From TrEMBL:
It holds the Pfam family DUF2971. InterPro entries: DUF2971. This is DUF2971 domain-containing protein. The lineage of its organism: Bacteria, Pseudomonadati, Pseudomonadota, Alphaproteobacteria, Hyphomicrobiales. It comes from the Bacteria. It comes from Xanthobacter autotrophicus (strain ATCC BAA-1158 / Py2).
Length: 278
């Protein structure tokens, strides 16, 4: 099932009928290091990484806009309650880190995500994030977060290398709905859900002029200045935090996690991994 045109393929119908998503998860999981856990809790923020800095170099390409991945920031999660050995190995500090669990409505304002016809789920927060670019390109100021949406896994270039700009009667329309929502099939073991922040607004309309084509769309000459955004978390969401200690974590790691939680999230729950591993 593939959609041509500016409406994109990542729609509510695609999520429900093609991907088989029955409902959005109420909690999400992230595998990380003890150091990263402390940074999250000490700052009360969640890092959104720019997609051209993540471990998949094929992320978020577009057929008509070079370096399109640099215009998208993401926070990557798992929706699987059962622990995943590959995730512990790749992201969980070689089985010695932690897995955090937070409610899906973790951002300031604690608003629940809503699924829209285009682009999937969407959340409005009570905080604003500013994305700056090299002048004279214009940045963005928003309180919107796209997601959480499940990544679609495919090797079909019709999904992975989409067109973003549609032109009509002197006007250029920018449609990044699908950008950053597809990964190659070899990543499918992750079963990833992600939050996404787009630097250029969905369905934005621009004059199809020299400024748009040679400044707005030139992400090489006029790059986005930050490589990451740090989005505030609601303190009450951190009260619901559950931390799972990695299967190879030793007593020193246990004491360090206990110290971090006592300092920054005293109401959080700490449990040990259920995976036996040497």
């Amino acid at each position: 099932m593939y959609f041509e045109g500016p409406e994109g393929f990542y729609t509510d119908d695609f999520m429900f009928h093609v991907m088989g998503i029955e409902e959005l998860p109420s909690v999400l999981y992230q595998y990380t290091s003890v150091d990263s856990l402390e940074k999250i809790l000490a700052s009360h923020t969640l890092r959104f990484s720019r997609l051209d800095t993540v471990n998949d170099p094929e992320e978020a390409t577009a057929s008509d806009v070079p370096l399109a991945a640099s215009s998208v920031f993401v926070s990557c999660w798992s929706g699987m309650q059962a622990e995943q050995i590959p995730m512990w190995s790749m992201y969980g500090q070689n089985f010695s880190g932690v897995r955090i669990r937070l409610p899906t409505n973790m951002f300031t304002g604690r608003k629940d995500p809503l699924v829209f016809e285009k682009g999937g789920a969407f959340i409005m927060t009570d905080s604003r994030h500013l994305i700056t670019r090299k002048s004279p390109a214009m940045g963005a100021d928003s309180c919107a977060i796209i997601g959480p949406n499940k990544v679609y896994y495919s090797d079909d270039p019709a999904y992975r290398n989409r067109k973003l700009v549609y032109r009509q009667a002197g006007t250029a329309h920018f449609y990044p709905y699908d950008l950053g929502m597809v990964k190659g099939a070899h990543w499918s073991y992750e079963q990833e859900w992600r939050f996404k922040i787009a630097a250029l607004a969905f369905e934005a309309q621009f004059p199809d002029d020299e400024y748009f084509n040679k400044v707005t769309l030139d992400f090489a000459a006029y790059p986005f200045e930050a490589k990451a955004l740090f989005i505030p978390l609601a303190p009450s969401a951190l009260d619901e935090l559950e931390v799972t200690l990695g299967p190879r974590a030793d007593d020193a790691a246990l004491k360090e996690v206990e110290r971090v939680l006592a300092s920054y999230a005293p109401k959080a729950t700490l449990v040990r991994s259920q995976i036996p591993i040497r």
